[in-house]
Structure formats: structure tokens, C-alpha cells
Amino acid sequence: MSDAVKHRSPTAPPRSFIWTRRIALTLLGLFTGIPLWVMVSSSVKSLVEVQNAFHWLPTHLTLSPYIDMWSTVPLGHYFLNSAIVASCSTAVSVVIAVFAAYAVSRYRFAGRKVFSVTVLSTQMFPGILFLLPLYLIFVNIGNSTGIQLSDTRLGLIITFLTFTLPFSIWMLVGYFDSIPRDLDEAASVDGSGPISTLFKILVPAALPGIVTVAVYSFMTAWGEVLFASVMTDDSTRTLAVGLRDYASQNDVYWNQIMAASLVVSIPVVAGFLLMQKYLIAGLTAGAVK
Amino acid sequence: MVAAPDVTRPPHRSKPPAAKARRRLSWANLRRGGLPYLFLLPAVCFELLVHVIPMLVGIWISFKQLTQFFIRDWSAAPGAGLRNYRIALNFDNAVGKQLLHSFFVTLSFTVLVVALSWLLGSGAAVLMQDRFKGRGLLRTYFLVPYALPAYTAAITWEFIFQRDNGLLNQIIVHELHLTKTAPFWLIGDNSFTALVITAVWRTWPFAFLVVTAGMQSIPGDLYEAAAIDGAGVWQRIRKITMPSLRPVNQVLLLVLFLWNFNDFNTPFVLFGSVPPAQSNLLSLQIYDTSFQNWNFGSGAAMSVLLLLFLLLVTAVYLVATNRRKSTEHV
Description:
The complex is a heterodimer. By secondary structure, chain A is an all-alpha fold. Chain A has helices at residues 2-6, 15-42, 47-51, 64-72, 75-106, 112-122, 127-145, 153-177, 181-189, 194-205, 207-222, 226-231, 239-242, 254-274, 276-288. In chain B, α6 (150-160) packs across α8 (190-215). In chain B, 39% of the residues are buried.
């Protein structure tokens, strides 16, 4: 406020604006923060305490939820499943998308438009639309060839491509388009072939974009519930479904659920905040498109 | 700032039409012409595998009487003709009535969440347009709900909404004394409120993010010129910020609508696979029909209907917004 008083430039906001801002942002801050506080504070409470009326502060600070959560349910195993599935589907879709985006961004060819429209439109389709047939296809493949896909990590990786792949292609086309063509034309004049142009010029230049796409794909895969709830069994369960297991017949281990939720959120929130600048540019470009 | 994919890309310069005309059928040229297809091949294969074929299979099974008895060998399922669609759209019988009900639940859920998220998101973005102390930190903080995995966010809210040991009832019953008896939040009418709150909490940061980015492309001298002309800050918001954001908002609203209309994570985590009737969203309804009642044919028909509705909404929306844009420029 003091700076508003000191030099009143013509664009300096009036007091009414500053107060509106303070009140509105405080309320929004509370709205955002209260669940986060519930998570953090409940994760250091005892089981008895989370089963009784809620208290803002833990009466007995304990770290036991963070220790017990690994043995109450096979959290480590779920963690591993999620990590494998999310990183594999991310890796596969980013690699495929780099080539596809190169073709779409740098070549004119028949069917280019059809391909782009298909990729873009599948992003808006509900996941349930693909889940049902994919499940049946997997069952059928399993019956006729013996290759088990449902309830396996491989099957889950494939189904996760339904959302990681179109997103990756679409975003990478955007990033490649933003790289001046002069760069790869110069390289091709110098005798560089298409593949080496891609890997020597475009991939390094778009590296922040590629990393961003990877981080975001990983985040979406890490948070996916729908496919994971149908396509997994006890041994391949991911975190999205596995956290349900903290609710037993008699007790719901809310303190451990909150501790586990925090721990599984840390990788993606950290990734998001680290890549924030690039993610925002890419995401908003995708949305504004 | 924003690496926007350009709609009207300039034609590739290295291939002028003259070169195209001179092209002869040689191995080298064939390889050149086939090259983009080669790069596209893996993507096309996987697109077929995860999108195109499942979609065709989905349409095909929507005409089949595919129940649990035929899951093992679903190609043997008897044909159903339009029966699945007739049942889904017959609003006098139980299935159709339920579907219609969850359609309206989904619609009101989506409209509410989109409207609230958009209001909160653009409000915050507009208020945070000017620099102030701690702005960067606050922006990052606001993004945390969006960065959290969907299920951890919904689980936390589920805990908040617990009747006996949740935070919400603690506040309204014991701290504010608004009611004497603690209400249920996850069953009955209140479940809809709980669902909307949870979804808004997760969605509004995205609206904030997109509007913030959209505002960065508004030239600063526009504001200065308006200020020199004597326009106050509220007037500048109304006359410059909001109109400039129109194209951004058009896309944002469509994206938010589609996301929330298709949302499965939030209700599924909040309520489990059998939600209260007041909060039975379409995606859950289809999930239920397919994986709880094992009626895949019916579930597929509902998915196809959902898709048709979304395509219709998108088409109408795009036509409506484009028309306005083109008349504006005349």
C-alpha cells in the first residue's frame, strides 16, 4: 500500500482495488490452503485422534503414520507400479510424439490434416469411451493368443497412451512450430539428413518443451483413476486405486491416508513447480489453441 | 511467451511448387515423399490401437447384446439392433430414467463448476495483474491444487466431508454453531455440493493459469493510454482486459466444459463406484452399467450417446463463437 501512496502513477490502483484484492486473495488462499493443511496436520496425528472430532492442530505430534503406512498396505509396491506405468507410458508417448510432431510440423503431406484433427479430437473424448472397448479387446487378445493384457502393467501402459499420446503430439507440434525453420534448413543445406536434422537441431532446441511434455504426461498418468480401477488387480494396482486399501472393515486409517497422499503427491508437485514456467507456457498455448 | 501452435502455418519453403512438378518417380524421391509417413508410422499405429479401433469396437458392441455371459467371447454376442439405444433413450423405464437423471446432474454439475472456476480464476488473475509483494509466490501457491494428483485431492476432501471426524462439520457445528445435528456430506442432497466444491478446488487454478497467460499478451500501453484518458482501474478491467481476453475465454470455457463433463476421478474417489443418486455423473453411470452390472452393450450405447452430445455441443459452440468473431472483424 505504501508504494501506492508514495508515487501515484496514472496506472496505480486505487484503495478500493487494493482492498478488494486483499480480501479476495485471502479468501482464495484459505480455500486453497485448508485442504492442504488438513492433509499435513492429519498426517502427523494418531489414529484415535483422526477418528474423533477434527482439531486444527494435532494434540500429539507423531510420525508413526509415515512409518506404518508402508506396512498397512503394500504402498511401496503400488508406488513402484505407478512409477513404472507412468514413466513407461510417458517415455513411449514422448518418443513416438517427437517423430510424429516432426512430420506434422515440417512436412506437407496428404492426410496431415486428418491426422491432426484425429489427434486433437481424441483429447476431448471421455476416457470411459475407450476403457470399455479396450477392456474387451484385452480380454479377447488374452483368450485367443494367451497374451495377458488386462491386469498387467503392459496393458495399463497401453491404455494410458489414450491420453498421454495425443497430448504429447499436440504439444510437441506447437514447440517444433515455434523453432525457426531457417535452423533446420541451414542444417539440411549443410548436408544433414532428415533424421540428423531432427536430432541435432529440433530436439535440442525443443528440449525444454520435450521435458515439459514428459513432466505433464507423467503427472496425468500418475493421477489416473479410471483405467487403473478396471485394468489392474492386486499385484498391478497403482496408487490411485491402492490408497483405498487404508479403509478396512473396522477402521479408516485417515492419518496414514493423508501421509501417503502427501508422499505420493510430492514427486508430481515438485515436478510441476520446477517446470512451472514451461508448463504454464505450454499448457496455456494448448488451451488457448 | 506462449508457444502457440499456429493454425495457419506458412507452406514449407524448401518445397516450392516448381520442385514438386519436376519430381520424378525415383527411389530417392519416393523416400523423400514417404518420409513424413515413416515418421508418422508409430504414432498412427498407436492411434489405431488406442483410439480408432476401440472407438469402432465401441460402436460395434453398442449394437450387441453383450452381457457378462459373452465377455469371454464377445464376438459371439447376439445382435441387439437398436435395442441398447432404445432402452437408454426410453425415459419411461428405469434405465432410461436414470440416464436422463444423471445427464441433468452432470449438466448442472458441469455448468456450476465451469462458472465458479472461471469466476474465481479470472477474478484472481485480474486482481493479480499488477505487481505487488509476494505475487509470484502466491501464483505458485494457487497452482498446487492443480498439480496434486486428482485422487489425493479428492481423498482429502472426502476426509473433510466426513460426518463425525471431518473438518467441515467441525466448523459449522462446533465452531460456528450453524446447525445442531451434523449433516451428512457424502450421501443425500449435500453430496452434490461436496462434489462441486471438490471439483472447483481442482479446476479454478487452471482457469487462473490460462487467464493469467492470456493477459500477458495484452499490450501495456493500452492501459497507459486509457489511464491518461482518465479511466480508472475498474474501467480498464472492463473496457480493456475483459474484451481482450475473449478469444482466450472462449477456448478456456470449452475445455473446462469438456473436462468436467467427462470427469470420473472426482466422483469416483469421493463416493466410490456407487455414488448417491444426487451426484451420479454420466461417466459413473456408464461405468456402473458396464463394470458393475456387466452390461457392456448398454454401456457402449451410452458412451456413444455421450460422445454424440459432446460433439454436438462442441460444434455448436465453435460455430457460435466463430460467427461472432468474424462479424466483429467486418
